[in-house]
């Protein structure tokens, strides 16, 4: 698989695997199929795995740890701290205090069953703690050999600069897809100026761009999209029309909607690594096919025409979660 470089030297496959949905947010999980999906990803060269302590909470790291046992050397392992949750799933808050950073890292290492994390992200920025303090503790983790590279997620440009001044930021993880392009306003230019790679989560617009979602009734009771702004009311109908246009372009090119959408993210630059999430081998193999899709300038123009910036209906989070991004 094609390799891309994040920051000053973290080599990863051009396509990673987001593991969150195996443990939360998108309906019930199937640990056996999830482990099989991770194993298939490794077999295909998709060895960049993305988790976080909050997923589950805590269960996703344990799942990933079980899946990579015996294959650790093949994996570029990423996880995150900062969204503090209790064992019962309730949310404590955003925590960037240095003492918490150290405890969170040690707990993640234990759950994952590894002696180091390849890429450790500050998942969300704590507005009550100077980012320099948080990143000072993160830099100590690197010095101790517990972490190899550092990343930040959904941080404002000025915050990224402050963190980078403490310790080089290898990757910024942000939502980026045909449906979510806020990153292009200011953040992307800052990341590229500083030589920071982009890890794009939800490149399929939380599954909408796959073309497999046709009704709000497709979501089970424990699927967070039942109440997501882009999947409810008139927004759903408007966005479904956009997906239909993407599907038409994909069909004309002989690829799936998912493959076209992921290929678009891949085409945004050699410093961009999408991490589409799935918990099924079938969809994993479909997503990997995006690497074979070559988009011409004409293709990119056609995609821009049917899904121009700002065409998606509804914000990418509800108010509570929106308050935690671009901090």
Individual helix count: 11
The arrangement of helices and strands along the chain is EEEHEHEEEHEHEHEHEHHEHHH
Strand content: 15-25%
Average pLDDT level: 97
| Helix-strand makeup class | alpha/beta
N/C terminus separation: 34 Å
**Radius of gyration using CA atoms only:** 19 Å
Outline: globular
Tell me roughly what share of residues is in helical segments: 25-40%
Spans of 5+ residues with little confidence (pLDDT < 50)? Answer: none
Strand count: 12
The largest β sheet comes out as:
8 strands, parallel
How do the strands line up in the largest sheet?
A: 3-4-5-8-9-10-11-12
What does this structure look like?
With 327 residues, the chain is of the alpha/beta class. The protein has 11 helices and 12 strands. The protein has an 8-stranded parallel beta sheet. A two-stranded antiparallel ribbon has the order 1-2.
